[in-house]
Amino acid sequence: EQSGSSRKSVCVFLTPDLGVASGVMKLSLLLLLQQCSGLPDFCVSSEVRTALGLPPVTEQSASKTLDSEILGVSTPLRLTTLPWDSSQVMAQLLKVFFEEVFDLAVSDVVGSDLEPVVLRQMLGCQDTTAEGCELNSDPGALAWSTSPHLLGEACQIYYNDNLNTVLSNPAFEYKPSVATVFDINAYEGIWLSNSRIRDAGWRDLKSLEWFRGLDGRTGDVTQYFSKASDVVAKVGLGNITRCDTYDSFVEGATHYQKWVQDADPDGVHMVDGKLMPNCDHHEPWAGRVWLSPMARQLKAGGEEHFCIPFITIEGMRLAEVMQQFTLWNVPGCLFDLQWDDFAAVGLSMDVLLFSWWPDATFLQNSPIRLQGLPANNLERDQHYYMTSPAALTTTVLASPFLQVEDVMMAPTILQFLRKFQLQDSDMVDLFQGMTGNGTTRSSACAWVNKPENVERWKSWLPLQCPPGSEARQDQCVDCKPGYFSDQETTQTCKACFPGTFAESAGATECSPCAGGYFQDKSAQSHCSAACPAGFWSATKASKCDECLPGFFAAENASRVCTACSPGMYQSLGGQTECKECEPGKFLLPGSEAS
């Protein structure tokens, strides 16, 4: 039963059906589902929890919130992911740690894949479409109660322009930060999904010389790839994206004309006033498949298998591939497909394709990234793409909310993230855990319980600090006044509750306000002023109460109210004295009547 960030376990009773069919034992599910526990459904095994000194799971586990009196916010940790496997499985791993080690309530949501929207959400913008929102330096005007606190697996190049603009702007007081940088070799580009080439024993598949080996002038290079006609037959011609669909097609044609016009004047043409790739060189596929000059040459020579299929999605790397196929004399044909067809062709056929790492889509095929000349960013900035793209930096971005001074648990979160480290082999393990009936959640659970991984992530946890202190940047420091820590813990110091205070640093407990005094705020180093005359308070009070009718408090800082003496009365509350009875009248002690 999913409810916010809490989960409840369900008992499922299974009984075996001894009937056997096709050698497979059938199990029938008894239709009896009974809620058996209100405990959170945690991943980390009880053995691991015991070994690490973590407390047992209770109904209060994973219930702590991020509280800030400065911003007036109390919220679960909001973890936003991007809509692809690597981001989501990484976020599930973070969720396990925050819920099960730090007892934090976590709200996770898949965010937009639009760069400006995600960045503005990270900045706490009320309106994620507003230009200049990132320049707002007033933290009180930002939507901290709804904005994400962490963005799992953000690639630096993906966020580079907007993020760097914000980080370098001195006017913005609260800025997002790069909480951790992973040791992952992340790339986008042209990849090879091809069993025939591997079976043929080609050497050094990733080298520049191999890429030159696709030169159609040197021999029949198409024999190692699936036929383009088979790709069309598999997906259906009507499911191949038309070459006038995406803006990326216009951009690709524009850059192609700028750099390759002399080599291939017929590679682009005007369609309804827009420059587009010319996809009309093979009549059966007219308007949908672009052929490189070498592919056109082989087709004109009567070759049946005249091109190497390259598949992409939403025009990704279109400009790059058009230029490289032309200038390297590769007989290529470009197909833009919808996601299901893109994945199906990439998994079942020998093709070149647009892909990226880390990603689980083509993992079972062990695709190979084609590497050409080292990246020349000056050329690539001018949209001349004869060199390889630069590697990506994979990070977790932290919201400026976590940098606000009094946000509870924020130092612990950031300290953990600084040590949190994943490598390519970890991503392979996590992706493999998602195969079959696996999910991002079950894969993350399996990863954290592996003995070799437990030792690793144990080293990521903040220091165990003695009572009266907390871990900050790999060292224990005293709790500041107004905060306390009453046990050895990895957590941050806790704020004193209203009615209590901690006058000095390093407190292991909070002192109660004495009778006659009060404190209506948390995290305070002293109690507020004494209760005024006419009011009183008991020990550990968060407010003063007025004396009831028939009672009074003549002095400030009263612990109790005094009853009116015989012959005196008080009909009002909150008074500093009693009145005398008129001649001929009397009252019992403590009476309210006049």
Properties at a glance:
alpha+beta, 594 residues, 5-stranded mixed β-sheet, 24% helix, disordered N terminus, 16 helices, single chain
End-to-end C-alpha gap: 61 Å
Number of strand elements: 31
Taken as a percent bin, the fraction of beta residues is 15-25%
The gyration radius over C-alpha positions equals 34 Å
DSSP helical segment count: 16
Q: Low-confidence runs (pLDDT<50, min 5 residues)? A: 1-37, 134-141
What overall geometry do the principal axes of the alpha carbons give? elongated
Strands ordered across the widest β-sheet: 14-16-15-17-11-18
Portion of residues within helices: 10-25%
Largest sheet: 6 strands, mixed
Task: Decide which structural class fits the backbone.
Answer: alpha+beta
Mean pLDDT: 81
What does this structure look like?
- It is a single chain.
- With 594 residues, the chain is of the alpha+beta class.
- It has 16 helices and 31 strands.
- The chain has a 6-stranded mixed β-sheet, with helices on both faces. A 5-stranded mixed β-sheet has the order 8-7-9-19-10, with helices on both faces. Strands 1-2 form a two-stranded antiparallel ribbon.
- A hairpin with a 2-residue loop joins strand 20 (469-472) and strand 21.
- Helix 8 (247-260) packs parallel to helix 10 and helix 14 (424-432) packs across helix 15.
- The longest helix has 16 residues, at 85-100.
